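Hello support,

Our group uses your service weekly, and this is the first time we've seen a run hang past the timeout. The protein is Mitochondrial outer membrane protein porin. I'm not sure whether the cause is the sequence or the server load. Input pasted verbatim:
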Amino acid sequence: MLHREHEELQETMEPPIPIAPARMRKKPGSTEKLKQEVNRAFAMPVPAFSDLGKSANDLINKDFYHTSQATLDVKLKAPNGTNVAVKGKQGFDGVTSGSIEGKHTLKPQGVTITQNWTTASLLDTKVELADVVAPGAKVDLQNLWNPSKPNSAAQKLNLAWKNPNAHLRAFVNYGAASGNVDATVDAVAGHEGFLVGGEAAYDVGKGAVTRYGLGLAYQTPAYNASVNAIQNLNVIMASYYQKVNSSVEVGAKAGYDVQASKAAGLELASKYKLDPLSFAKAKINDRGIAALAYSTKLNAGTTIGLGLSLDTQKLNEAGHKIGTSLTFEG
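Update from on-call engineer: The timeout came from a worker crash unrelated to the input. Re-ran successfully.
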């Protein structure tokens, strides 16, 4: 009887699911990896026209500290949420300049107010409205005024709107001294990582288009490339950026002057992350000017940067530059 019950129990049990050996299991192929990469590209926001090639431009231009003898940045946050930034720098000509900026955001209303005062007596006031007019829309009202110069005031109206497939902007400038109005519009459309955009500037007083340009780009989280035709399509700029791994980034930028039929510059740059708190950068251009930079975070609120610029064709001559940067955050 027990034998018969055992046989009936075996008949009611479902057969086991065969498990393939580890060597037979399917690994993600190149097609699946490509799909994952494309999906990540879909999730990337469409940049503004001026930001086509931004990754390469930032790698080449930012965090090189040789442009000034010394730079000091102090960033503080008040208890009411206001961000205060004090900046100062001394150039190689001995001239010292600085600015102080206060920025406060009213999050429920989507309003940000920024005021900046420089040692050149320029007062810059900006009011930003984000997602107030419509979802994805941003409106900036800006007033520039120098009390030491009569009729120096200027007003700017900046409009922007973006969604997952497009980024549109318009800038309207009015100068009180000249009474002139000029406007610039640009647009970028994106699909599956491919980007195409253009810009145009119009001078109301002259009644003419003063500038226009076009741009093409392709972006993914790991790399991007762009080609821009600027200055009325007379200068072509191409850039490439790649994040090789979590520690290494490389980039390049090249230009060509169509009217002069000659190259308009070439720059190569790289960045190496030494550890979570430090990185080193290097770049060189077609004129043989090389730059090195090192940045490290000393503690939670202090960062120091060191920079060096060398003319590799004139190593025995003066003209090399050394700069430092110190940033405090609190």
